[in-house]
Amino acid sequence: MSIPPLHPESTGDPRELRWATGARQLPDRPPQLTALIDEGVLERIRIGPGEARTWLADDRSWAVDGPRVRSALFDALSSLDDSADLGDDELRLRIEEILRRDVAPVADSHGGAVAVHSVHDGVLTVTLAGACHGCSAGERTMSDLVARAVQARYPQIREVRAAKPRRTWLTLSRRRDWHPRQPGSG
Questions:
Q1: Tag placement on the chain: N or C end, fewer CB within 10 Å?
Q2: Residues 6+ positions from 100 with CB-CB distance below 8 Å
Q3: Average pLDDT over residues 7-33
């Protein structure tokens, strides 16, 4: 098993740190962090895809307690199985969350949307909708934004591609009882 990536980032709240955890996904309540809550070191934790957010309890400091929090996170991450063992369904759920958090705001700002179409055998297929559908920058969006965000956390995704657009045929038929008005008819 490889050494798990773990990088702290400050937030607007001096009691909170966001820890970037890479591809490994922690459970909602890792016992190593729950123990720090029970001891009064942490007030709360929130786990998300690729991250863990921790809030120090009152009268605590990162200078004193930060190394314990980091060690607990490192232990929790080290005890996990690698994400390579994830099935396609679980991987899809995690990728959907990454798209919601990292890709959707960019697509939304341009009037578009990107959604997971399928995940199968290392290939992620996404649907481009709204302004993204047919956009000349769509391929760039996929390679630069989607692929980078997803493959950084899940390297088993070897390829990201756009779903082929579905053609919708509109059937036009004439009503059989329709007759043009004849001049002079009532």
A1: C
A2: none
A3: 89
